[in-house]
Amino acid sequence: MAAQVKVMQIIARMNVGGPAVIVAELMRGLDKSQFEQILVTGYCDENEADYLDTVAKDVKATRIAGLGRSVSLIADLKAFFGLVSLIRKYKPDVIHTHTAKAGVLGRLASLLGGRGAVRVHTFHGHLLHGYFSSALTKLVILIEKFLAARTSVLIAIGSKVKEDLLAAGIGRAHKYRVFFPGLPAPKTGSKAAAQSALGISSEVLYCTFVGRLTQIKRPDRLLDVAAECKRRGIDLRFLVAGEGELFESSKQRALKDQLNVTFFGWRSDIDQIFASSDIAILTSDNEGIPLTLIQAAQAGLPIVATNVGSISDIVINESTGYLTATTATEMADAIEKLVRDPQLRQMMGAAGKAHAERYFSLDRMIKDHSDLYRSL
Hints:
By secondary structure, this protein is α/β, with parallel strands linked by helices. The chain has a seven-stranded parallel sheet, sandwiched between helices. Helix content is 43%, strand content 16%.
């Protein structure tokens, strides 16, 4: 029998969000008789929920201080040398890095400590738009170009993510693979049961936003959409699941402007929230491929989202939902069409669900990674 392939997964922090979900599913899903895995990660910030503590309690990790989000020369150096010694001790066959900071520290550490290890990096999105000043963005691109030349395989989480990275000159086309994230099918129950469990009325239509309330996700734009819907007399309520640095200010504004918005805070029962809903919405300025929209599609919801990042891999415009410009007016137009036409909601929701089952299944994601690791 062939020896197990030793895979080291490195991610900066397992805060609740897409990359953590994908890494946890890889840790659980790869065949243990063929792969031996170790997960290396840092610590979350105080205002972030840690996915390993809250949801994936079965997934074990080796923690390295300083690998988390904040950038500090001393902490980063400590994390770097911690990674080097861990790589030397574990001697992985494949070093697979996820997210920007872990991608830099992990790949540099593997150059020093990982003789013979194959480097794989996943771009779960990128930092080329909406994060840094233009000078800092140029520096990020230079670092990524240097590392891409020393990485065997670059995985992009969506087609647009890959196109943007290639356009910036990061890596060569032959090194890229597009691996869509895969999620387990949602636990299904009736809409009425889900609404009753959440304590919400079945008389109202619900448009749901799930995500961190942070600048790049533009909760202010979501509230602009809610205000526009109110102005037009569109009868629906917005549900918001998620927290972040704009959580309190968003709640205050909704209260002050008397908007039809319910804030649930951070939740682990997203399946239930989508099962209670009629429409899903995402208002971001930039995205990789948002897993919450895959969950919404799996739940059979039509989606209204800004046409940014690789959202177009999930939402097929005018077939499974609407991709709009980043204006509240255009988003409200799309919502109004869906609110006024139950048949359109049903049709788009069913088309979205079929698309998600085909492209975003957990089995497909596990197979893509297993085949890749074995081939390397």
